[in-house]
Amino acid sequence: MKTAKVRLTTQLSAKKLGSRNAFFAEMIRDRWLYIMVLPGVLYFIIFKYVPMYGLVMAFQDYKPNLGFLQSSWVGLKHFQRFFGDPSFWILFRNTGLLALYNIVFFFPLPIILALLLNEVRNEKFKGIVQTLVYIPHFFSWVIVVGIFYLLMTTEGGLINEFLFSLIGKKFAFLQDPEWFRTMIVVQSIWKELGWGSIIFLAALAGVDLQLYEAARMDGAGRVRQLWHITLPAIRSTIVILLILRLGSFLDSGFEHIFLMLNASNREVGEVFDTYVYLKGMTQAQYSFSAAVGLFKSTIGLILVLGSNWLAKRFGEEGVY
Fold first, then answer.
1. Burial label, 304 (beta-carbon count in 10 A; 0-12, 13-18, 19+)
2. Of 228, 145, 244, which is closest to residue 191 (Cα–Cα)?
3. How many Å is the maximal CA-CA distance in the chain?
4. H or E element, residue 72
5. For residue 13, what pLDDT band results from cuts at 50, 70 and 90?
6. Helix H segments across the chain?
7. Is residue 3 one of the residues assigned to a domain?
8. What is the mean pLDDT of the chain?
9. In this structure, what CATH number is given to the domain that contains residue 130?
């Protein structure tokens, strides 16, 4: 019995050693692939995971001169203050509506653009269109907001001047609260529409062309080919990107919103991101702003887990 145990232990150790050696051999064989992925891994470790240690200040009365170790612990005090603040529901409404508008109006458009570009047979024309719709992605939000300001300001804006010549009236697009969310969504679409279509175009490039040939032989037109071949082929890509999009559901984009805010539209434009900046950077309420940020991240995590679970229930692969 004792000899059998020794033999079994020896076999397990040899097996473990063999698997370890195989792992290192595979790393040596694919070393250039690991070197290529190393910058991305380091980026996430340094800028995503290491800063998570700072979330402990959400449960502290953090003082910069005392640091994390000596600052006093206050538990859920900052969360209770935040949820009890009348501005909480205003922030939640503003952030939620902007996020919902982006999902409803922005998310489908890169898919539609990719489908339209996929149908273009003139490669030169297709390349020109792709270049034109990709360029705005490389503009900073300062430039984007500046362009829209020059076009839509009531003081000599090109669009307002054109409208005035037609109907004799100007619209305060940049000041009127009713136009704020529309402006945010339109700017996001103009800036990121082309760039967002790249992944879908890559997915479409992997569709087997023989499926289209078989469908044409069966008498299927362009619309039926789109519905029965193209969309099912990229369905998993759409689901995964939608899940990832929900993870940043409450991330409205600080720089974009901050540049568009003014005294007239602040009531509908103040979101969690700008509120964190206001409390944390301008009023030095570090612990309170960390609590707000942690709440926002927790909602994103719940949405990712929930949407991934739903995707699995409906037979999709999901993110994990």
1. buried
2. 145
3. 100
4. strand 72-73
5. low
6. 2-29, 31-44, 67-70, 77-84, 87-101, 108-119, 123-134, 141-152, 158-167, 177-196, 198-205, 209-217, 222-225, 231-247, 254-260, 266-269, 272-277, 286-313
7. no
8. 85
9. 1.10.3720.10
Confidence of residue 18 (pLDDT cuts 50, 70, 90): low
272 occurs within a structural domain: yes
pLDDT at 6: 47
Is 81 or 251 the better-scoring residue by pLDDT? 81
284: left (phi over 0), alpha (psi -120 to 50) or beta: left
Contacts of residue 5, Cβ cutoff 8 Å, sequence gap at least 6: none
Which of the pair, 262 or 23, is modelled with greater confidence? 262
Q: Residue 247's domain spans which residues?
A: 80-313
For residue 130, give both structure tokens. 């792709």
Q: Which pLDDT tens digit goes with each residue over 28-59? A: 888 888 889 899 999 989 988 888 888 888 89
Q: Structure tokens of 48?
A: 């995503």
Only one residue has tokens 């269109």, namely 129
**Rounded distance, CA 208 to CA 298, Å?**
40
Answer whether residue 85 is part of any domain: yes
8-state DSSP, 84: H
- Cα–Cα dist 46/182, whole Å: 36
pLDDT of residue 26: 82
Question: Would residue 11 count as lying in a domain?
Answer: no
Which residues, at least 6 apart from 28, have a Cβ–Cβ distance to it below 8 Å? none
pLDDT at 177 over 90: no
For 52, which DSSP code?
G
pTM of the model as a whole: 0.81
Span 270-283, average pLDDT:
88
Whole-angstrom distance, CA of residue 264 vs CA of residue 178 = 10
182-197 tens-digit pLDDT: 999 999 999 999 888 8
Domain count, the chain: 1
Could you identify the residue written with the tokens 């992925």?
37
Determine the residue type at 230.
T
